[in-house]
Amino acid sequence: MDRFPAHILLVEDSPMDVELTLDAFRQVRLQNEIQVANNGQEALDYLFGIGDCADRQKYPMPDLILLDLKMPKVDGYEVLRRIKNTPILKRIPVIILTSSKEEGDRALSYDIGANSYLVKPVSFEGFLGVVGHIADYWLTLNVGPPEGENGN
Amino acid sequence: MNITWFHRGKIGKYPVGKRPVFPMKISIVFVALVFLILVVLWQIPLVKVKAQDDAGEKVLNVTAAIPREFPPYHSVDENGNPIGFAIDVFDHLASRAGLDVTYIIYDGWPEVQQAIRDGKADVIPNFGVTDERKELVSFTSSYEVFPVSLFVRESSYDIAGLEDIANRETAVVVSNVAVGLLESAGVPIIVYDDVASAFFALLAGEVDTLAYPEPIILKMALEADLASRIKVVGNPLIEIRRSIAVAKDKPDLLQLLDEAISEFVGTDQYQEIYSKWFGEEETVHYWTAERAFWVMGILMGLSVIGLVAWRYWGLFSMNRKLRLSITERQRAEDAVQQELKVRIQAEEEISRLNRELEKRVIERTFQLEVANRELESFSYSVSHDLRAPLRAISGFAEIIARRHKSGLSEEGQHYFDNIVSASEQMGQLIDDLLRYSRLGRQTVTLKPVPLQEILAQAVESLTPRVTADKAVLSLAEDLPVVSGDRTLLSQIFINLLDNALAYHRKDTPPQVSLDWQSEGDHVVLRVTDKGIGIAPEYHQKIFDVFQRLHSQDEYPGTGIGLAIVKKAVDMLGGRVWVESKVGGGSTFYVEVST
What we know:
The structure holds two protein chains of two kinds. Chain A has five helices and five strands; from the N terminus they run βαβαβαβαβα. Chain A is an alpha/beta fold. In chain A, strand 4, helix 4 and strand 5 form a beta-alpha-beta unit. The two termini of chain B are 93 Å apart. In chain B, strand 17 and strand 18 form a beta hairpin.
């Protein structure tokens, strides 16, 4: 199955998780360029093109956002809220990728507008499976919003 | 006296405390009234007699001859005036007949008779009637009869009458009728000059008998207090009638006196006079009208006083009782007041404690809410923050074990496998812990839940395991509907069955059965396995969190399953317990409400 080239933004504060996630994507041979924001603030800066991020050649608008919930300062919910409240961003699918199975987290995430909620398994093998499914579904099966009309 | 009794009886019917005021007053008035009536009744005859006394019109002068001493008929007082029964009677008769009497006293009966013969006197007021004397004088109808009797000493036993005294000496008094009588009967006699000498001769034993008119001897004996020393024997020698002797030439006087006698004899006054001189039994004499009057008066007075005293005593004792009861009542009231005070204090204390309790409950609830929130945030932290590094450990260890195999010795590879395995177990523990704590925070809403559905779901989720272990399940297919919570009941089934499947003997596949029975408004579920069993000392402990009896190698598990069962059952208000022995399998019972 062909995977369309897509830009992915990974918002994750734990460097080890970032490393594992990137590794996992490599394992499933996902060739897409993955941008990483190390916290909520960075994610917002990236999405709103603040500072260096104004350069969309270097920092393109993502087609899919993988968002951790628990982060210092600006947490995942805040980032999600800002995305969903911003017309040019709201159509970007946001996948919550977290270790929390809590009902409250799940409910709030969907309420704010998360498009998917995935729990990171403890085992790397299990995580590989999850990442594989993400690639298969979101980057292959799922048909995204129309190009270029994000900004109205 | 009767009246007094009547009153006392009537009053006596009322208990002292309840005696009404009316009967008391009425009784006093009644007593006074009767007293007055008695006084009036006694006065009437006195008045009447007095009126008759005053009725004398034509006064006739009469001379009466009397002997000096012939007691009790005749005697003379210290002033020389004649007294005696005969005098008193004759005075009355004379008064009735309208006579003015002059008494002439003679020394003895012979002189008296001589005075009549000589015409010196008109009457002898009291004279024994004999045929002989009738030639000398005329007699009125007799107003008295007395027997002439034989007296003996009280101690005599062999004299019963005239027939026994033929050889005995009998005392007589000169010129008495007995003299002639005994002489003619041939009885030896000793003649005494006066009756007193004869009487004392008998008592002294000079003679054995005395013959004399009975009333005179009895009178004398009574007066000398010697009545008990003598007695009368046999029939009277003779009965002598006595009447008034009137000179033969005074027939008018005779008629007047006869009339007076017929009116007078038998009246109370006559009886009174008779009693006065002859003496009767004291009881009869004692009750003179005046005495009776006074005694009655005194008795009535006493009874009135008694009634008043009784009344007063009644009032007094009532008063005292009242005062006592008032004191008691005051004391009781004081006690009640005291108790009331204590109770009020106690109530105040209770309400103060209640307020404090309420305050503490509110505080505690707040604290619990805070604690609950803390627990939530703790759980959240655990789920995120413990798992994140764990995932890192697990993930990198796995990467090394997979990708860098060639760079590792077999031993190194084995160790990395251990790290991965431990990490996964840690992950499972964290998951279970979260599950357990999440259970506690869940709000329970009791709804009818068909257990059969819940069981089916639980079995479904356990199917892979059942298949893998080749377990034999024997499950009831008619489970009832109970009042509960789906999630909790589901947890109970899953964990009980999981537990039953887990601890089977190594050599045999698990055999698990589930059945139930109804007990009143409860349902008891029973999950039985033929597994390894549980020692009695662990029958309680196995329901604690992370309580494990076996190593991870022997029986994998986190020790959370039964703790979840226990918690879920508690939250449904039910009970869970186990019956088991080592090597004999285990039976878990769960009791829930229908």
